[in-house]
Amino acid sequence: MAAGRRRIVARSDALGVRWADRVAALNAALPALEAHRAAVTDASVTPPAYYLAPFHAYPDGNVGWAPALEVEASALAVHAPLDPTGGLGGDALLRTNFMRILREHVDPGAVRRVVDLGCSTGLSTFALADAFPDTAITGVDLSPHMLAVARYRAAERAAGGGDGDGGGGGSSTAATAAAATTSGPITFIHRRAEDTRLPAASVDLVTLSLVAHELPSTALAAIATEAARLLRSGGTFALMDADPAAWAAVPPPVFVLFASTEPWVGEYARLDVAAVLERAGLAVRGGGKNTARHRTVVAVKEA
Ligand SMILES: C[S@@+](CC[C@H](N)C(=O)[O-])C[C@H]1O[C@@H](n2cnc3c(N)ncnc32)[C@H](O)[C@@H]1O
Fold first, then answer.
1. What pLDDT digit, counting tens, does each position of 39-83 carry?
2. CA dist list (Å): 133 to 71, 121, 124, 178
3. Cβ atoms within 10 Å, residue 164
4. Pick from 107, 95, 104, 161: nearest CA to 132
5. pTM summary value
6. Nearest CA to ligand 1 atom 14
7. pLDDT in tens, 133-151
């Protein structure tokens, strides 16, 4: 394991994440995961060059089993400092607050179809399914391995199982199991977020959760254009991600360490996200801070 990853794992274990146990639990399901990966892979999808660069201290970026099996543990660890009780509820809090802001802008009754771009293993997708029950949700990602875990977790939810945080501790088992009974259909597809091949003007809500800081600005602009294409007139786009303003408080050596595994954060920090969305035909209507470290930007597809 690379030094960067060893540091992340050691830090998460100190927080009580039990990284190895969580990854081992998914590893034990590898035959089922392989079947999901084979079923979801679309061989016609070509990842852009930026996607294949080393990332998060993984030599092949987000591609492969290691990032897919570790991302849930990683989310718990990275977001743990957001939990005011000192527990592992930071990731759940981040998502609950994102959904709260979304529901301030979107009438859940008017939302029938949702697309979650860069859905990874479904952490953001399942939060949407809980917040917008009875909607049809499509999760889009470029990693068939991430999508395989997402499909596996979706099957657990449908069966009323799983604990909603990928391995125990952090979010409410009862709430997740209850939500599983009211969720609409969830589909995961292997596509570039820049080119989902989904029908134009077919979606009420498009989300991009914790993806923008992982993208070159040209890719974010292309994804905003695709989101605008997908949305019906008056539909909503919501981007949730790190708030670069909060990085000013991070000690420089810590930020340098963080940025060393995140090639695009410098570009993201300098980007005028609202201007990118406006150029794509998405009129910014508001948003807000969903944690001390994260912001949500809500925009509407103009007629
Ligand atoms: C940090 S994860 C965010 C996952 C999830 N949305 C969340 O809130 O936890 C970023 C995800 O975006 C995906 N991704 C990055 N670039 C993409 C692109 N151009 N098209 C589709 N997915 C992409 C990665 O594969 C990864 O799974």
1. 999 999 999 999 987 777 777 778 899 999 999 998 998 898 899
2. 25, 19, 14, 11
3. 25
4. 107
5. 0.91
6. 118
7. 889 999 999 999 999 999 9
* Residue 189 tokens, joined: 């597809």
In terms of residue numbers, what domain contains 118?
3-301
Residues 84 and 91: their CA atoms lie apart, in Å, by 12
Q: Measured from the CB, is residue 143 less than 6 Å from ligand 1?
A: yes
Give the number of domains in the chain: 1
CATH of the domain at 234: 3.40.50.150
What separation in Å is there between the alpha carbon of 192 and the centre of ligand 1?
A: 10
Tell whether ligand 1 has an atom less than 6 A from the beta carbon of residue 123.
yes
The pick from 142, 146, 208 for probing ligand 1's pocket by mutation, whose C-beta has the most ligand atoms within 8 angstroms, reads 142
Task: Name which of 94, 102, 144 is nearest 121 in CA terms.
Answer: 144
Q: Is 136 strand, coil or helix?
A: strand
| Phi then psi dihedrals of residue 165, to 5 deg | -125, 15
